[in-house]
User: Fold this.
Amino acid sequence: MGRFYYVVRDAAGKRVTGFEEGSTPEEIVGRLQAKDLIVIDVTADYEQSKDEQESVVVAGKVKKRHGRVTSDDMVLFCRQLATLLGAGVTILKSLDIISMQVNSAKLFNVLKSLQKNMEAGLSLHEAMAKFPNVFSELWVNLVESGEASGNLAVVLNRLATYLERNAAFKKKIISAVIYPAMLMIVGIGALLFLTIKIIPTFAELFRGFNIKLPFLTQVLMVVSDAIRKYFLIWAGITVVAAVVFRKYIQTKEGQKNFENFQLKLPIFGELFRAMTIERFSSEMSTLVESGVPILYSLEIVEHSVGNLIMSDIIRKIKEEVREGKPLNQPLSKSGFFDPMVVQMVTIGEEIGELSPMFKKINAYYQEYVETFLTRFASMFEPIMLIFMGLIIGIMVVGMFLPIFQISQISG
Assistant:
């Protein structure tokens, strides 16, 4: 016995879907027709029990699947699918094999749905388009290009290479940023500890002496009292502000204003611009190499680059290219791209090697971003240590000045 998914129309012509238990599709069809229903489709349901969905056998051991779909899951899926298709395995069989190995419960269900939709007559890219949260527009369009050209395995290999390169780049960025972030968190924690615990202890001690406290000590005690008394209020204001800010930048206007702010930042504005160009060149190189026309590539990148300012720039570039202008002219006109980028694109168009040129541009900006973050991390540590030393030094001096006064009075 198994469970089957059916699509039927009732006597009024209304489309009805559901599940039915049975041994064969024919049995389900007969049962539905006996109810005066017009059968459109009956397919085996791939939904398994919750335990089966959440577990996967790895090296002979049963391990729990995680709930989300990570970039590593997508990289592995793409590489496995490219390998299986390259070895002559059919798409449906490849999806079935991979679904038994994925570490994501969500991706497992998506792959089973892909199988079901393809068995119902959809192509792979059409089935993927039903899951925009898992398969981006870049995925769908590259797969469509591979299906149309008959080189799906080759295109998927290129996509897998792009995903691997992109994932490795993101990990390098995270590795470069995580140490300064941890150092800052520890520093702020230490300052809060001194302010909330240590200063009040000294303040209680000083109240037992009838002396006028130095101005610095009074300031420190006022700050300490304010933080201790209103800590929950300040924490609440911070959380609310963070939530409101997050909601705001999720709007189109908020996101664009925040991107403008990032690009205008001193020193870091150039970093954000470089990261945007890196993403643009990476996607363009993959699309052009896979045989996607320039106009279509620009349209895909416009919606997948993840930056509204860049999307607007690409939209204008696309319109000028549609009018017959070479790509380098609107790139130069936008004012967003360095002359080096424009020159390399010009050369790429002239010699018919646009994809390799985009790869070189991408490699340059990846190296630029990595170098910037590495230098920032190496500079941030001594700056943070000096800053912490100054603040703690001021606190120590402020707390010990009254002690010196007390010792002079006692003497």
In short: The two ends are 97 Å apart (CA to CA). The chain has three domains: 2-44, 50-135, 170-411. Residues 354-410 form the longest helix (57 residues). Residues 36 and 409 are 105 Å apart (CA to CA).
